[in-house]
Amino acid sequence: MLPHFPVFHMNKSALGRTFVTACFSILTMVLPAQSQTFLKAKGRLITDGKGNKVILRGMGLGGWMLQEGYMFKLGNTGQQYRIKARIADVAGAEYANRFYDKWLTNHTRKIDIDSMASWGFNSIRLPMHYALYTLPVEQEPVAGQNTWLEKGFAMTDSLLKWCKANHMYLILDLHAAPGGQGNDLAISDRDASKPSLWDSPANQQKMIALWKKLAQRYANEPYIGGYDIINEPNWGFEKATDRKGTEETRNAPLRQLMVDITKAIREVDKNHIIIIEGNGFGNNYRGVFPLWDNNMVLSFHKYGNFNNLGSIQNFLNMSRDNNVPLWMGESGENSNTWFTEAIKLVEGQNIGWSWWQEKKIGINNPLEIKLTPSYQKLIDYWYGKAPKPSQSEAIATLDEFLENIKLENNIYHRDVTDAMFRQVKTDVTVPFKSVTVIGKATINAVDYDLGSQRKAYYDKDTSSYQYTPGVKTQGNRGHVYRNDGVDIEADNDGYHIYSMEDGEWLKYTFNVKQAGVYTVKLKVASEVGKGKVSLNLETVHYPGKAITTKDWSYLEFKNIKLRKGLNKLQVNVDEGGLNFKAIEFVKNK
């Protein structure tokens, strides 16, 4: 079965583009390839070897080497080692080990990287788990020495090969450091019963040695975009009550560790950018300056706040004062509107970005892992809401899950990548699905146009500002099908739009085979026993009609003239509190 994304599903124009691409591919095999150059920090810009500005547009591979519970509806489980223990509980320890080997094989493959390149990404951020590259300190046969594991290095080599084939940069990110770098346990798979990175000189020395080993391996590889040496430290050095590290004023242990890592890298690698992150989940740089290397980039992470200059002004000031480039190394987990606004904001300041993440269970990423009934039953057991499954049942469920994490079994959310690339450049709307009216046709209400807020649709709640006090919006409150602000929920035979408020509207672009007079019927229901809907067709307004039933019924708009070719219809909610299922077109005789 072929995956549902643009690389494979093509109309005639897409076939034409594919032919051009194929010809280009043949040419690139015949002509000598241009040599790739190392990325460099040049003033406040990231540039290629010729000094040309490079805007990194990247995706983080969260969930591959390092699982976090929320990605798979396991928020109560948290760290990866605890997820593994729960798998062992229901399926056995031997199966749990096989599960993780298969997970690493299936989750991210060449097809994932090829697809991301086709969507517009030019870089990949690899969140690494140190334990795939070296043993934990407490497991070393000889204290103070490092046992190197081929697994992680081989995985990185394969990923680099796939990136090179697509002319994409690979940025190495140490997401899980030895011992764990913060009090947010899941992001580094930290076991709080053992010494943290900051409590253990041995963990710090292992981290330094790992970066030197990686730098030795990739020193002469220009497709490595840089070394993101520590992800989101969150630690109270001056006072233990500052568990997030947001109040720290000196950050001396963090600065010293990053200086020591840089020194070790530079002993073997003079080429690559060193990317650093402050305390407080990457954003608290107090005490970190002055910088200690001339090829560095400051990373900041941005989630759930407003997309205005004020939200990044502190980082812009740091960039200006230290003459250093910025990179938004992690962002996402929000609605399409927020995505478009955030990318416009940072690219307008010559700042590249990396999104979080390619796939998980949920709609706010390019790929969605399906939540099956059997997996839901397993989750219910882990939450104490269902009986324990038999071992054979658990293994069958987990085997199914391992297949569902493959890209070809994911749900591709074209609206997400459209918001991240096309909508950043244009306000033009395009059909979500191609519909041609030949005498009669139906458009599902949830298939309104692809486009931005106030262009393809208007909804009063379009984004989540979970880190902004007093703002409780969330975008699509149903959390299914699409990632815009429009509220969508599942029903017995698909999806419908619900909780439509006064003044909200949706636009639909469709093709008409034969011009003529049509009846347009809206399948609607009222949540509150009333409601009113009107239509706009190009410049013509069709006055509103009242909805009075809570059951699905049809509002008919008669004698609507549709021209041959493209038509644009806007459905307006004059009085809200209603559900909307479909639009039906019937040509009058």
Automatic annotation (TrEMBL):
<dbReference type="GO" id="GO:0009251">
    <property type="term" value="P:glucan catabolic process"/>
</dbReference>
<keyword id="KW-0326">Glycosidase</keyword>
<comment type="similarity">
    <text>Belongs to the glycosyl hydrolase 5 (cellulase A) family.</text>
</comment>
<keyword id="KW-0378">Hydrolase</keyword>
<dbReference type="GO" id="GO:0008422">
    <property type="term" value="F:beta-glucosidase activity"/>
</dbReference>
<dbReference type="InterPro" id="IPR005084">
    <property type="entry name" value="CBM6"/>
</dbReference>
<keyword id="KW-0732">Signal</keyword>
<dbReference type="GO" id="GO:0030246">
    <property type="term" value="F:carbohydrate binding"/>
</dbReference>
<dbReference type="InterPro" id="IPR050386">
    <property type="entry name" value="Glycosyl_hydrolase_5"/>
</dbReference>
<dbReference type="Pfam" id="PF00150">
    <property type="entry name" value="Cellulase"/>
</dbReference>
<dbReference type="InterPro" id="IPR008979">
    <property type="entry name" value="Galactose-bd-like_sf"/>
</dbReference>
<dbReference type="GO" id="GO:0005576">
    <property type="term" value="C:extracellular region"/>
</dbReference>
<feature type="domain" description="Cellulose binding type IV">
    <location>
        <begin position="436"/>
        <end position="587"/>
    </location>
</feature>
<dbReference type="InterPro" id="IPR017853">
    <property type="entry name" value="GH"/>
</dbReference>
<protein>
    <recommendedName>
        <fullName>Cellulose binding type IV domain-containing protein</fullName>
    </recommendedName>
</protein>
<dbReference type="InterPro" id="IPR001547">
    <property type="entry name" value="Glyco_hydro_5"/>
</dbReference>
<dbReference type="GO" id="GO:0009986">
    <property type="term" value="C:cell surface"/>
</dbReference>
<dbReference type="Pfam" id="PF03422">
    <property type="entry name" value="CBM_6"/>
</dbReference>
<dbReference type="InterPro" id="IPR006584">
    <property type="entry name" value="Cellulose-bd_IV"/>
</dbReference>
